[in-house]
Specification:
about 425 residues, alpha/beta, Aspartate Aminotransferase, domain 2, 7-stranded mixed sheet, 13 helices, about 35% helix, globular, binds pyridoxal-5'-phosphate
């Protein structure tokens, strides 16, 4: 049995403990939802205020040059590159995850069509995040491809010689299950298939090495583990062997080789800059940079590797405590126990009351979230298993927090508090 005292001792020995001071966490809140919206860094309000009052207010249009606004997508991209195993100049921070997926999937399809025109299939995972599937559906329809959705253990079998692109999310948003990016990419390449990886639940959460995996295209999200703030710019990466070969379809002027020549014909910039479209949200970029700096602050302490080992310790502890203290309440674990298959979240299922349990926890200051059970896989089961989702961000979550979260969960279950009507009313955002 692990006790509260044990957890306090773990916090006292934790070399990353001081990083919590980089964030503004409300009193009395245990925040287990950094996988949906990261916490506000302490530096962000001041930096955004400075961007507004000084750079915009006084600098006005001069700030495009003087404050470095124009090169923010590349400058922030270089910071993101350090977190995902890319080199400087290979990543841009821009647009949303959905839009970047449209750009890179479209580029991948064009590339595949030029090289191997007979391949007319895109493979993805049935339980991928819906926006990824929706974007792929629309592109497939437009270009005459078939989108084939498979279960996560059937991906490699699906890579036949009619497949053009494999599009996967590295860590599953619903279960926290993680693909082995290196081996899946290698299998795709053996089959002549290009890979598009969505790193929404990976960047800043688990070590990613895009070059070691020899991936082709990747995108990711700025407001989850990167702490960039609601609706923060996302990012795109293209392997340098492809970067200059293809034009992405949203060929706006920011991706032009010389935007301020104002020529009537589009001429794409070299490298990743052609993946930009139009004018960027500078205030959001300023906030994103503060979020990225909280992750880069871990570099002297071991960076993503140190974060990863704490993340695994936290999720191991959470799983252990739930099993020790909340047994007999109908909770099951859907997140893989195997470290190599686990992202930075733990998901529990329950056939009844998952939404209300999450609401009761939120009322107690333990913020996780709820995801409806997977409609595509529940058909064979007697009851749909809804998901209680708990994200662990080792930058600001500690071992005592984890202990307390499980204690609250235990009390919510034992008292039946979750049955109260106010916890059973659905909100628009779950
Ligand atoms: C969070 C998330 C998104 C979000 O896309 P937006 O364009 O920011 O709304 C996309 N894909 C995955 C896999 C995600 O987890």
């Amino acid at each position: 049995m692990t006790t509260l005292q044990d957890c306090r001792a773990l916090d006292a020995q934790d070399p990353l403990r001081e990083l919590r001071g980089l964030f503004t966490l409300p009193e009395g809140v245990i925040y287990l939802d950094g996988n949906s919206l990261g916490v506000l860094p302490r530096a962000t309000p001041g930096r955004v205020a400075q961007a507004i009052t000084e750079e915009w207010g006084r600098g006005l249009i001069r700030s495009w040059n003087d404050a470095g606004w124009f090169s923010l997508p590349q400058r922030l991209g270089d910071k993101i590159a350090q977190l995902v195993g890319a080199e400087p100049g290979e990543v841009v921070a821009t647009d949303s995850t959905s839009i970047n997926l449209y750009k890179v999937l479209s580029a991948a399809l064009r590339m595949a069509a030029d090289r191997q025109p007979g391949r007319k299939r895109v493979v993805s995972e049935r339980s991928n995040f819906p926006t990824d599937l929706y974007i792929a559906q629309s592109l497939c329809k437009e270009r005459g491809y078939e989108l084939q959705l498979v279960d996560d253990d059937r991906v490699e079998q699906a890579l036949g010689n009619d497949v053009a692109v494999l599009m996967l999310t590295h860590v599953n948003y619903r279960t926290g299950a993680m693909h082995d990016m290196n081996s899946v990419t290698a299998a795709a390449h053996r089959a002549g298939v290009l890979t598009v990886w969505d790193l929404a639940h990976s960047a800043g959460a688990v070590p990613v090495d895009l070059h070691a995996a020899d991936a082709d295209f990747a995108i990711g999200c700025g407001y989850k583990y990167l702490n960039g703030g609601p609706g923060a710019p996302a990012f795109a990466w293209v392997h340098p062997r492809h970067a200059d070969c293809f034009e992405q379809p949203l060929s706006g002027w920011w991706g032009h080789a010389a935007p301020f020549e104002f020529t009537p014909e589009y001429r794409p910039a070299q490298g990743i800059s052609r993946y930009l479209c139009g004018t960027q949200p500078i205030l959001s970029m300023a906030a994103l940079e503060c979020g990225l700096d909280t992750l880069l602050a871990t570099q002297p302490m071991g960076g993503m590797r140190a974060l990863r080992s704490k993340s695994l310790a936290l999720t191991d502890l959470f799983i252990q405590l739930v099993e020790e203290r909340c047994g007999g309440h109908g909770l099951s674990l859907v997140t893989p126990r195997e470290h190599g298959r686990r992202g930075s979240q733990v998901c529990l299922t329950r056939s009844e009351g998952a939404y209300a349990i999450v609401q009761a926890l939120i009322a107690r200051g333990v913020i996780g979230d709820f995801r409806a059970g997977d409609p595509s896989t529940s058909s064979g089961q007697p009851e749909r298993q809804d998901i209680l989702r708990f994200g662990f961000t080792p930058l600001y979550i500690g071992f005592e927090d984890t202990w307390s979260a499980v204690e609250h969960l235990k009390q919510v279950l034992e008292t039946g508090e979750w049955r109260r009507p106010e916890f059973n009313q659905k909100h628009a955002v779950t």
